[in-house]
Amino acid sequence: MRLVPQGSEMKYALKRLITGLGVGRETARPCYSLALAQLLQSFEDIPLSSILEQIKEKYDLQKVKKAMMRPALFANLFGVLALFQSGRLVKDQETLMRSVKLLQVLAQHHNHLQEQPQKALVDILSEIPEAMLQEVLAKVLKANLNVVLSSPEHLELFLLAQQKVPTKLENLMGPVDLFSSENIPRLVNVLKVAAAAVKKEHKLPAVARDLLHLAFKEDKFPLFWKEVVEEGLLKKQFWPASYLCFRLLGTALPLLSLEQLQLVMRGNLIRHYGEHLVTAKVPNQFKFAPEMHEYVDTFLEGCREDPERQLALLVAFSSVTNQGLPVMPTFWRVVRFLSPRAQQDYVAWLQDMFLRPDLDSLVDFSTPNQKKTQDASLHVPERAVFRLRKWIILRLVSIVDTLQLETEESLVEQVARFCLFHSFFETKKPTVQIPETKQQLSFPLESRTREVVSSAFFSLLQTLSTQPWLTQARTQGKQPWASRLVQLADQLLNHSRNVATVAPFTTKQRQAWDRMLQTLKELEAHSSEAKATAFQHLLLLVGIHLFRSPAESCDLLGDIQTCIKKSLAEKTRRTRSKATSSQEPPWVEVLVEILLALLAQPSNLMRQVARSVFGHICSHLTPRALQLILDVLNPEASEDEDDNVVVTDDADEQQLKDTEDKSSDSEEDKNSESEEEEESEEEDRDKDVDQGFREQLMAVLQAGKALGGTDSEDDEEELGDEAMMALDQNLASLFAEQKLRIQARRDEKNKLQKEKALRRDFQIRVLDLIEVLVTKQPENALVLELLEPLLSVIQRSMRSSSSKQEQDLLHKTARIFTHQLCRARRYCQDVGDYVETLHAQVQRLVQQAGRQAESAVALYYFNASLYLLRVLRGNTEKGARQKQRESTNASSQPKGAQAASCLDLSLVAPVYSAALSSFLTKRNSPLSVPMFLSLFSRHPVLCKSLLPVLVQHMAGPTRPRQQHMASPTRPRQQAQACLLLQKTLTTREVRACFEDPEWERLIGQVLTKVTENLRTLGEAQSKSEQQKELFSLELLNSLFKTINHEDLQSQELCGVSSACQGRQQSLQQGECPAGTSRLCDLYWQAMKYLGVQRPKLEKKDAKEAPSATESPVSMKRKKKGFLPETKKRKKRKSEDVSQEADAKPAAPGGEQPPSTGKKKRKKKKKAKVPAQAQANGMPATQSPAPDTPTLNPDTPAKTPKLQKKAQKLSQVNGASPLSPLEPAGKKQHQKSLSKKGVLGKSPQSALLRKKARLSLVSRSPSLLLSGARKRRAT
Asked: Among candidates 1033, 1047, 1049, which has minimal Cα distance to 1087?
C-alpha cells in the first residue's frame, strides 16, 4: 500500500476491510479488525472520524434488517476496537467521544454482545489521560451505586475512576464505602460472576485485582479477606470462586506484612487449598499447585532481604497437614530462593518439629471421605506424629539435594549428623560434646520411624557419595562426607555413658569396626593411588552399613580388609624373585565376589558403590575374576548358584507397607482382588487333574457303591443314610487333600517365579560391572571374552521376553553389546597369542548366525564376527606401523595390509563364502543383505574374494515351484545377489582392491550374467521374479555408469543389446503394463546408455474414439466420472478429417485452402505422420516410431563414447554414420544426434512445437478469435 499512490486502491482496501467487519464467520471478524487497525496505524493521514462514519453508515442500527442485526452489532464493536488498537483514538477527542457513545448504544444489546461493549469501554478509558477521563466520566458512569455493583465491568470502571480521578468521582457520587456490610454481599456476587467469566482463561480478573489493591489502600485488607474471601466466596461451594481466592492469595503475598501473612496462612482458605491438593488426583482434573508454586517462587525471590517473611511463608505452607501429613511435596524446590539465614532457621524448625511435634500449631484437616471412616486408629495422635516425622526427615534430605554444597557445608553436616544419630543411636545422658544429646523427644521414636530415618540417611549418603563435588573436596584437602560420618559414628560409640546404640554391637562386630578404622589409617598413606581411594570408599560405606545389617557387613569387612592387604602387598612381592603361587585366590577375585554380594542387596547405594569400586580395579581384572561375573549371566551357572541371590527381607516389606499412606491401601485392595481373580483362573485351569487323583476318586466311589454296572439302580436303593454320610466324608477328605496339593503346586510356582525375578534383577545389576569394564577398559583383551556370554543372554531373552524384567535385561544387554562394545572407537590392540583363537571364534560366530531362527538374533552374532575382524585388522595396521618405525634403515617395506597381517584371509574367506552361499540358496535364511553390505564396506579385501560367489548366484536356472534341483537358486536369492552387486561395485574401496584388467574382467562377467536375466525380461509371474528384473536393471544401469566413467571396453554389450531388443519392440510406443512403471523407467534408462531415446506419449490416443476390440468393462471404466454426452461440445468427426487429409496429400503452398481454425490445423498436422511414412516407401500402418530405431542383433551395441568415436571416424573418411536399418532420407536428421549417442530432436518434437504454437490461439483474447468464429459460422 505504501508503494501504490493513495486513491482507488486505498478506498477499495478500506471498503473491503469495513465490509469484512460484519461477515458471517465469527472467526474472521477479529482478523479484519486487526488488519484495519494496522492500516490506520501505518497511514496516520487517514482521519478516524471518516472511518467511524463509514462504519456507522454501512451498519446503521436503525436501518438494518432484523436478520442482519447481529452481524451489524459486531461490525460496530470491532470497528471501534480497530480504532482503539491503532493507537490514535486516545489522541482524537472528538472521535473518542463518538466511539464512547456508540459503545453505550451497543451495551443495550446485551443478548448479542453481553458485556463486550462495557469491557471495550473500560479498556479505552484506562488508556486515556486523566484530564480527558474527567470530561468523559460523567457521561459513561452513572451516579448510582446499584448500577456500579450490577456487573464486573461497571465495578471495574468505578475502580478505574477511583484510582485515576478520585476527586471527580467523589464529586459525582459522593463518598462511597464498597466494604460496608451492605455492599459486601453484592461484591461477592460480582466477583463470582467475574470468576465464572475467566473460568477457561485461568487468570485473575482485573476487577478482583483492583479490589485487592483498594483494600490495601484503604487499610481494610483484614475486613476484605475475612468477609469477602473466606466468609463470602468460599461459602459458595463453587470451584471457579475457589480458584479466584487462590489467585488472590498468590497475588497478595508480596503485599502482605508479617502479621497479615500469619493471618492469611492460618485461615479457612489455606485449609481449603490443602484439601484441593489432596483430592485433585484425577488425571483430567484441574490442579492449582503449579500456579501456586509460581506465586511462591515470585514472593521468595522478591524478598531475599527479609528472611523473616520467607521463613513465615515456608513454615505456614509446611504446617498445612492432612491428618498429620503435610500436603506440600517433600521435593518442593523453593529452597533455592531462600537466604542463608532463612535456610538455617527453616532446617532448625523442621528438626524441632521432628523432636517435639506440636500438633496444635498445624492447620490440620480431613477430607470428606476420611471423615466418613469410623476407624478410631486413624485419628490417634501417634499416627499423625509418625506421618509428620516421616515427611520431615524426607524433606530434610531433599533440602540437601537442592543446596549448593560448596557454600552450605555446615547445613549439610547438621542434617547428616541429625539423620545418623536418630537412625542408630539414642540418648542416655546429655553432654556438651555431642549436641544431638541435648535434643529431647516429646514422643518416643518408634521402630518404624527409625527405619524411615535410616532409609533417608542412606539416601542422603548416596547423594553425598555420588556427586561431583566429592572430587573437588579431595583436591582441596577436605575429607569425604562418608569419612566424616564414620568419625562421628566412632565418636558416638566411644561415648557409651551418654549415647547407646539402638542395636548394640557384639564383640566380633566391634572388633570389625576397630579393624576397619585401622585399615583406613593405613590407606591414607597410599591416598595418591586410585585403587586405595576405591578401597577407602568401599570400606567407609560397608562400615556404616554395619549399623543396619551387622552380620552381613561384618563378614564383608573381613574379606575387604584381606583384599586390601593383598593388594597393598602385591607391589612389594613383584620386586622380589618369583615365588611359588599360593593356593589362595587373588585379591581381585575376592573383591569381585564381594561386589557381587553387594549387588545382590536391594540397595541403590550399594549398586553405585559397586560400580565406583569396580571402575578403579577393572584394570587389575583376571580371567578368573571375569568368569565369576560371567557365571551370573550364564543361565546354567546362575541357576545352580543360589548364594548370589538375596531375597528381600520380609521386615523391609512390612516396613514399606506400614509407611504407605491410606491412598495406597485402595490400590493394594485392587491388587489383591486381581490376584484372587488370577487364582480363580488358575483353579479353572487346574480342572485337568492327574491320573492318580482320578484313580483315588474312582476307588472311593466304588467303595461307597456309588458306581455300578447294569444293576446300579438296585445299588442306589441299597445305600442308606450312614453310607451316604461316609461317602460324603471320604469325598470331602479326598478333595481337601487335592486342594492342598494344588495350593502347594501354586506356592511352588510362585516361589520359582519370585526366584526367577530376583535372579533377573541380579543379572541386570551385574551388567553394570560389564558396562564399566567395556567403557573404561576397551583395549583389555578380556573384553573379547564377553562376546559369546552377552550373545547368549540376548538369545535367551529374545526367546522368553514376556515379562518387563526380561525386556529390561534384553535392552540393557543389547545396548552394551552394540553401542559400547561393537561400536567403540577403541578396541584391543594387542591380541598376542589369541590370533588362532579369534579366527576360530569368527568361524563359530558366523556359523551360529546362520543357524538362528530369528534374523534379529543373527544380526548380533554377525556383528560380533565383524567386531573380531576389526580387532584383527587393527592389530595388523599397528604391527605394520611399528615395523616401519623399527626398520627405518631397511630396504623393503610391506606392500600392503597383508604384509604383516594378523587377519588370515585364507581362514576367514571360506567362512563368509559358505555363509554367503547359504544365504543365496537357503529359503528362509536368518542372514540378510544389510549384514553382507556392512561386511563389504568395512572389509573390501574380503569382499574381493566373495564377489565370485555373488556372480555365480545372480543368474542361472531357477528352481521351479514344487520341484527340487541340485543347486536351488530361487529368483528371490538371485534378486538379492544383484542388489548386493549393485551396492558393492559402486564403492571406491572395492574398486581400489582390483587391478584394471581384473576389474574389466569382473565387469564383463557381471554383464554376461545380467544378460541371462534380461532374456526373460517382462515374463515375471511372481513378486520375487519382478524383484529380480528390477534389481537386474538397476545393476545394469550401475554397470553402464561405471563403463562410461572409466571408459572401459566391453564386448559383452552386444549380448546386452540383443537381450533388450525383444523388450524394446513391446515398449517402443511407450506402453507399460500395469504395475511395471518402475521396470519401464529402468529399462529406458538402460536403453538411453545404448543410444536409444524413450518414445514420447501421444495425447491424441486419449481423444480418439475407443476401438471395437475394447471390452464393455473397459468402456464403462473410461466413461466413469466424465461429463454426459449432452454436456459435451460437438466435435467434428475424425473420419472426415482423415479423408480430407488422404484426398489432399501434397498441396502446393500457394494453393492451400485458408485456415478454418485450430482443430483443422491439428488434424492436418497429425495426418502428416503417416504421409511421411508413405514417402519413405513404407505403409502407414507398418511404419515404426520416428524416434525409436530398431537395433540389429548382429551389430554390436556401442556406448555413447564409442558412438562418438565412430562418428568422428566416419566424418574423416567422408561419410556420415548411418544405421543399417535407417532409410536414406534421414541423413540430415542423423547429423543432429547429440555427442553422447542419444537421439536428438525428432520430427515428432517439431510437431509438438508447432502444436504448442497453435495452442496459443486458444489462450488469446476473444477479440482475436471473433474473426475465426464468424468465418466458421458462414
From this structure: 1033
| Cell numbers placing 746 | 501354586
pLDDT at 1097 over 70: no
pLDDT digit string, tens, across residues 770-817: 999 999 999 888 999 999 999 999 998 888 767 888 889 999 999 999
CA distance 149 to 1086: 87
Whole-angstrom distance, CA of residue 431 vs CA of residue 438? 7
Partners of 499 in beta bridges? 427
Q: What is the per-residue pLDDT across 275-330, written as a single tens digit (0 to 9) for each?
A: 999 988 777 788 899 999 999 999 999 988 899 999 999 999 999 999 999 999 99
| Closest residue by Cα to residue 162 from 152, 151, 173 | 173
- Let me know whether 301 and 429 are in one domain: no
Which of 483, 500, 517 marks a domain boundary?
500
Residue 933 within a domain = no
Q: Within this chain, do residues 285 and 311 fall inside the same structural domain, yes or no?
A: yes
Number of folded domains in the chain? 3
φ, ψ (nearest 5 deg) of residue 427: -85, 130
Residues 440 and 375 in one domain: no
Q: Which amino acid makes up residue 1171?
A: A
> In the beta sheet, which residues pair with residue 500?
426
Answer whether 1071's CB lies under 8 Å from 1095's CB.
Answer: no
Residues 275 and 398 in one domain: yes
Are 324 and 395 found together in one domain? yes
CA distances from 77 to 120, 474, 555 (A): 8, 72, 86
CA 221, 224, 230, 236: dihedral to nearest 10 degrees? -150
Residues 395 and 450 reside in one and the same domain: no
User: How many angstroms separate the CA atoms of 917 and 934, rounded?
Assistant: 17
Residue pair 945/939 in contact by the 8 Å Cβ criterion: no
Q: Classify residue 1230 by burial, with Cβ atoms within 10 Å: 0-12, 13-18, 19+.
A: middle
Last residue of a domain, one of 500, 522, 545: 500
Percentages helix, strand, coil for the chain (3-state, rounded to 5) are: 70, 0, 30
Output the CA angle 360-364-366, nearest 5 degrees: 140
Same domain, 299 and 425: no
Residue 900 within any structural domain of the chain: no
At 1100, the amino acid letter reads K
* Full residue range of the structural domain in which residue 487 is found: 408-500
CA 616 to chain centre: 35
SS3 of residue 21 by DSSP? coil
**Higher pLDDT pick, 479 / 639:** 479
Distance CA 1101, CA 986 (A): 41
In a 3-state reduction of DSSP, which class is residue 173?
A: helix
CA 77 – CA 74 distance, rounded (Å)? 5
Question: Residue 1098: pLDDT band by 50, 70, 90 thresholds?
Answer: low
Nearest to 266 by CA among 194, 364, 394: 364
pLDDT given at position 285: 80
Cα–Cα distance, 312 to 295 (Å, whole number): 15
List, for residues 346-385, the tens digit of each pLDDT value.
999 999 999 999 999 999 999 888 888 777 777 788 999 9
Q: pLDDT tens for residues 820-843?
A: 999 888 888 888 778 888 999 999
Residue among 416, 456, 457, 454 nearest 436 (CA): 416
For the cut 50, the answer to whether the pLDDT of residue 1135 exceeds it is: no
Please, are residues 1069 and 1021 in contact by the beta-carbon 8 Å criterion?
no
Helix, strand, or coil (residue 363): strand
CA-CA distances (angstroms) from residue 442 to 37, 382, 1256?
A: 71, 11, 103
Relative to beta strand 320-322, strand 363-365 is parallel
- If asked whether residues 358 and 467 sit together in one domain, one would say no
Q: For residue 534, give the nearest of 475, 589, 610 by alpha carbon.
A: 610
Q: Let me know: does 444 contact 379? Beta carbons within 8 Å.
A: no
Amino acid at 1111: S
Q: Count CB atoms within 10 A of the CB of residue 1245.
A: 12
CA 1199 to centroid of chain Cα atoms: 51
